Each structure stands twice: as C-alpha cells, then as structure tokens.
Amino acid sequence: MLFFSFFKTLTNQTVTIELKNDIRIRGILKSVDQYLNIKLDDIEVLDLAKYPHLSSVKNMFIRGSVVRYVMLPRSEVDVGLLEDATRREAANQAGKAR
Amino acid sequence: MERLSLNESPAPAPRTLQQNQQFSQNALGPAGPQPTGGPPQLPPQMFTTAAQLLDLTDKKLVLILRDGRKLIGVLRSWDQFANLVFQDTVERVYAGQLFADVSRGIFIVRGENVLLLGEVDLDREDDIPPTLTRAPFEEVFELKKKEDAKRKTGDKKRYDELQALGFEPEHSGEILF
C-alpha cells in the first residue's frame, strides 16, 4: 500500500502518464485507488494527431494495469522520505515472511 | 455505495497509518478531525475504484479496450473491478485518415479488457479533427484490415529481433495497441 499512499500525496499535481500502448497523457491527478487506477482531469494528449479519438476527452479514468510510467513533478517528491518508507516496508515484509 | 472502504484501514492499520503520517505534509489520509492540524483531509472513500467511476456514471464516455477498439456510449453500471455496462454504444473505427461509426447496442465489458475511459466533452465532441473524414464502414474496415495485417508483421519482426537479443517483449501474450 506504500505507493498508493504515495500517489495520494500527489493528488492535484500535474503528472504525465505513459500507457503500455505508448499513449502519453498529461493531466491533473484527481484520484487513485488501491489498484493504482488513476483519474486525470483537464487532460492533454501528447501526439494527439495519432490518437484522434481522444480529441474531445476532458478527463479520464485509466486502469492501473495498463500504465507503463507515471512522470511526476520533481519538486513534489521527497526521495529521501520515499527511500526510507520503501526500506521500512521491505523490512516489514521480510519480517512477516519469516 | 454505502459500504465503501479501503482495505488499508482495518487489518494492517498501525503500519499504514504511520505511513500516511509520514507522507502527510499534504497527505489525504483518514477523514475526520486531524490532531496534527494539517490541511483538510479528504475521506478515504475518495480513493476507491467505485468513487472514481461514480461520477462517470450516466455520462457519455469513450472506452478504449485492450485490443484497440474504441467504443462510445453511456456508462450505466460498473463494479470494483471496472467491469462495465455501456448503453447505446457506437464503435468508432479509424483507418488512415478515415473513420466510421457502427451501432453496437449494449456492452458488458470485463474489467481486464479496459484500457481507459474518457469523458467526452459534449461541447467539443463534434469538432472532428480536420484531417479526418467520415467514410462508409466497409471502406474503413477494409483499410483497417490491411493496416492491422501490416502492423502485425512489423510487430512480429520486432519481437523476434528483441527475443534474439534476450529481451522478452513487453506485453507478450496480450494484444495491446
């Protein structure tokens, strides 16, 4: 659940999402759920000419399983904090496995 | 809709809560009064699939499926896996600079096949990009068949080359475009 919490802290930030079929979409992250499904508002499709069917879309729901990358604003990510949290989670998982 | 809950809350509560607080400069953790006096918190129900789909219900949406099909219709029902029911669905087929609409009726879509759902801006839906022209279905369909065949051979070639180099194709076994 760590990345779920992490994405929750990024709501209302502008992010760019690349899907597994190469579509890239920039928009305001409105919400995220436990599957990392993502809702974007005020979207802008990069390379719209290739994806004309998205020309009249203003906000979208993206299924988490088809996301390849999420590009985040650098200033909004505390890498140190995230590292710590990741290691703590990994340690917890390892503790549980034993 | 009455029993929305995140599975994060009950069982592993101590740890997740702690995490939420670590991320809590502008975190959107549990609802209710916050002892920390941080910014107002959104209720955790905001972060469920159900909540995300609820405000798309009964709206005109573009649904893109994993096999590349584009369906336009009204979302009538859904569940937590993003299984969907679409009404008055029209499939829009694109090929080259042409497109065509085919009436399809009601769809029940299994969630795993959903790529994305986009809300159609009703003010802009008739602004079709000037490069595109509507054409008879048969014509578009023929062109699309040719395009698909061409892409298939191209993809296969690329995959074979990648595999020879020891790479596993990214979405092998899945049709995704």
From TrEMBL, chain A:
GO BP field: mRNA splicing, via spliceosome
SUPFAM superfamilies associated with the record: Sm-like ribonucleoproteins (SSF50182)
Broad class of the protein's primary localization: nucleus
GO MF terms, alphabetically ordered: RNA binding
Highest taxon of the lineage: Eukaryota
Gene3D superfamilies named among the record's database cross-references: 2.30.30.100
The Sm domain, residue ranges: 2-76
SMART domains according to UniProt: Sm
Span of the signal peptide: none
GO cellular component, one term: Lsm1-7-Pat1 complex
Keyword annotations of the record: mRNA processing, mRNA splicing, Nucleus, Ribonucleoprotein, RNA-binding, Spliceosome
Compartments reported by the entry: Nucleus
Family: Belongs to the snRNP Sm proteins family.
PANTHER family: SNRNP CORE PROTEIN FAMILY MEMBER, U6 SNRNA-ASSOCIATED SM-LIKE PROTEIN LSM2
Reported function: Component of LSm protein complexes, which are involved in RNA processing and may function in a chaperone-like manner.
Subunit field text: Component of the heptameric LSM1-LSM7 complex, which consists of LSM1, LSM2, LSM3, LSM4, LSM5, LSM6 and LSM7. Component of the heptameric LSM2-LSM8 complex, which consists of LSM2, LSM3, LSM4, LSM5, LSM6, LSM7 and LSM8. The LSm subunits form a seven-membered ring structure with a doughnut shape.
Protein name: LSM complex subunit LSm2
Organism: Penicillium expansum
UniProtKB/TrEMBL annotation, chain B:
Entry keywords, A to Z: Cytoplasm, mRNA processing, mRNA splicing, Phosphoprotein, Ribonucleoprotein, RNA-binding
Gene3D superfamilies (alphabetical): 2.30.30.100
Top-rank lineage group of the source organism: Eukaryota
InterPro entries for this protein: Lsm1, LSM_dom_sf, PTHR15588, Sm, Sm_dom_euk/arc
UniProt domain Sm: residue ranges: 48-123
The UniProt record lists the keyword Methyltransferase: no
Key word Cytoplasm present: yes
Pfam families: LSM
Subcellular location: Cytoplasm; Cytoplasm, P-body
Listed GO MF terms: mRNA binding
Compositional bias segments (type: Pro residues): 32-43
Family: Belongs to the snRNP Sm proteins family.
Function: Plays a role in the degradation of histone mRNAs, the only eukaryotic mRNAs that are not polyadenylated. Probably also part of an LSm subunits-containing complex involved in the general process of mRNA degradation. Component of the cytoplasmic LSM1-LSM7 complex which is involved in mRNA degradation.
PANTHER family the UniProt entry points to: LSM1, U6 SNRNA-ASSOCIATED SM-LIKE PROTEIN LSM1
Name by which UniProt lists this protein: U6 snRNA-associated Sm-like protein LSm1
Gene name as annotated: LSM1
